[in-house]
Every structure is written in C-alpha cells, then in structure tokens.
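User: I've been going back and forth on whether these two constructs are worth ordering. Before I decide, could you fold them both?

Assistant: Sure. I'll take them in the order you sent them. The first construct and its structure tokens:
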Amino acid sequence: MAEQNILSADQSVLEQILSDINEYEENQERLEYISASIKDITKETDSTSKAMQDEISARIKESTDAICAGYDKAIDCDKDKIKQVQADRDKAKQQGMKERIQTETASLRQENKELASQIERAFIQENISKITNNTFFLALFLSRKLKDVLVYILFMLIMCGGIPAVLYVLPFVPVWVPVVYTAVIALLFLIISRCVYINPHYNTIIAARDTKYRIRNNKKIIKKIRHSIKKDDNDAIYGLESFDHKINDLHDSIEKTENEKQGALKEFEETVKPDILEEIQGRYVDKLELMNRELTKKKDEYTKLDDLVKQQRIYISSNYEAYIGKEFVDKEKLAELCNIMKSGACTTIAQAIAEYKNQH
C-alpha cells in the first residue's frame, strides 16, 4: 500500500486505512491503561516495602529499647548514688573546713573574748558609762583609724550639712531654723568632746578604744584565715578518702554496665536482628515478588506496545496523512468517506474527498 497512490485507490483501501486508525487508537488507549497499571503497581510496591521497613524498624527499636532499659536503669541508679555520695562528701568537707577554721582561729577568738572582758571589767570597776564603750561613739569623738575618720566625716556631713539643707528648702520651715539647728548641733558636739577629754577616766577610754582596734584587727585576721581555708583546694586533710573510694567504685560500676550494654547490643545485632529480619521479610517476600514480577511484565508489555504505537504513528503519518492530509486521518471523516463510496457516487478516495468537501 505504501508503494501506491492511495488517492486513486478504491473503497477497500479506505476501509483498510480506517481499520489501521482504529487499531492505532486502541493501542494508544491500551498503552495509557498499562502506564496507569505500572504507576499503581509501583505505588503499591513502594507502600508494601515501606510497611515492611517500618515494621522492621519498630521491632528493632522495641528490642533495643528493651535491652537498654535494664542497663540504663542500673546506670541511672549508680549516677543517683554518686550524687548522694558527692553531697555527703561536700557536707563532710564543709564540716571539716568549719572545724579547721575553728581550730586555726581559736587563739584569736579567745584573745578577742579576753580583750572584751578586760574592757567590760575596767568599765565596771571605774563605773564608766557604757555609751563611751560604743564603737560609734569612739569613732566620733576619739577617731584614730581611717575607718573611724570616715564615719566621723559622714556623720558631720549629714548632721551639719544634709539636714540643714533639707530644712532650708522646705517652704514651711523658717530660714532661721537651719541656722539655729546647726549651731545647736555644733555646740552639743563641742560640749560632748570637751567632756570626753576632761573625763577622769579618759585614759581608760583610750585604752578601751585601742583594745577594740586590736579586736578589730584580730577579726580581720580571722576573716583572712577563713577565706584562705575556703579557697584551699587541698581537701586531703579532711579525711574524705572513703567518699572518693565510693565514687570511684560507682564510676567503675557504670563503666562495667556500659560495656555489658554494648556487648548485649552487639550480640543482638549478630544473632537476634537477623532472625527478626528473616521473619518479617518472609511475610512480605511472596507479595513483593509477585508485584515485582507483575511490574516487570507490565513494563515489558508497555515497551513493546510503545514501539508498535510509534511505528504505527510513523506509518500513518508517512503513508496516509501525506496523501489525504491530517484532516482526514480521523475515524468519523473516514467513515463518511466510506459511506460516500458505498453510495456509488465515487470510485476513488480522491473523488470521495472532493465529494465530502462539496457536501460541507
């Protein structure tokens, strides 16, 4: 047929063309159906494979979690014990430091106690007012150390500077009030200072002041000793070896449990896991093999049919469309051309096409 001019052919050739077109379109529909089947089978295969992998993962996780649970519980228990022993160790160390501080500062604290008793006895024996033994009173009227001088300056700034300034800015306070107040304070301070210096017990008060300085210095030394002991990292003197041994033993126990856990996991990987894989895969293997065989079969069928459809398309294009035009390579129009020829009005395909165009 490819070697003749089909335009001069008769009705039988036209019917053959129509048959080839029908076959081509049927093969196209079949090709689409096979393509959809391949997608469905592929999707089902992937879903089944995923279900198998999910089940394997879940079973392996469940098994490994069960193995780890017991070991992890033992490890957590030992860690809690370490925390408790460490807390007991810290408590024992604090107690040891406290006792060490007490021991190393005992002489200074005893000296301070005796010095304070000396001052108290002297004031009782000479019947001196207790107010003159007050640290603040001594800082104001018998200042010698820098700290006392600073207390004195601050007190005077407040009493003779700050309070009068406040009184001066208050609208309801007369202007003369701050002046009178400052004069009274200054006068009182001079009177008290004079009384202190002419006091018959002046030497005793001065001695009490100097003794208080000694007490203050001793307290500074005690504070330094306390700070030095707390900063000392050497805790061997506190007898903490038993706690350290317990902590080391617990760390060894944790390491041993960790090693046993890793051994159990390794044994699971080598012995139990293959059995799990075999059992689960065995339940899926037949179904997957069946689907893979069907998928292979469909793909082969698709490839062959696709080659056939391509060949048919080329044949139709080069042998039919080239002569009668793409417009008439259509089932409905070919059927109308057949009817025209059956009516006896035309004997060739070319005449049938011309008649068709006249009718439309």
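The second construct, handled the same way:
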Amino acid sequence: MGKYISEHNKSILKRYKMHCKNKGLTKKSIEAMLDTDLRLFLEYIGDIDIEDITHEICSDFLIYCSEERNNKAKALARKFTSINTFFDTWVKQDVISKNQMNKLEK
C-alpha cells in the first residue's frame, strides 16, 4: 500500500470536502472523515477509479484496517460510515452508479 492517490480521485475528494463544508459538518468531522478515513481508503485503492470499486475491495480495505492497522470496532465502524456516506453522495449526484458498501454488513 502506497500513499498514492490518482489525480481523478484527488479531485473527487476535494469536491467531497466542499460538499461536506456546505452541509455544515464541523472541521473535526471533516478531518476524521476525509483526512483520515477517506484519504486512507483512496491511498489503498491507488489507481482504481471510484466507479470501478467493488464491494470486495471495500471489504478488503476494512480487513486491512483491522488486521494490518489494528483498528478496533469503533474505528472500523467510522471508516465504514465515512465510505458509505461518500458513495451515497456520489450516487445521488450521478458521479457513480451504485454504492458498493450496500453489499456489506456494518
């Protein structure tokens, strides 16, 4: 796992950060969701476009966080929620066609 995020996914992340600010999320919430959870997820997927992410990739990421990063249940639940909300937003805005997190149990 590298620290690489594709330019396309960086753009998506910037747009999502603006979306969160416009929704009135606190700076602390935005930092937790975007600067920690989503940035780590996008680093994990590397060059994969968000439209091409499968539920298996999402599941593998959560397993990685649990086993390699030693995340506990609370941190995993926050990551799940952050990614799920991220995908839900882009489905509503027709950026992606479906939320792959819907296939996973929390």
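Notes on the second construct follow. Residues 1 and 44 are 6 Å apart (CA to CA). The radius of gyration is 13 Å.
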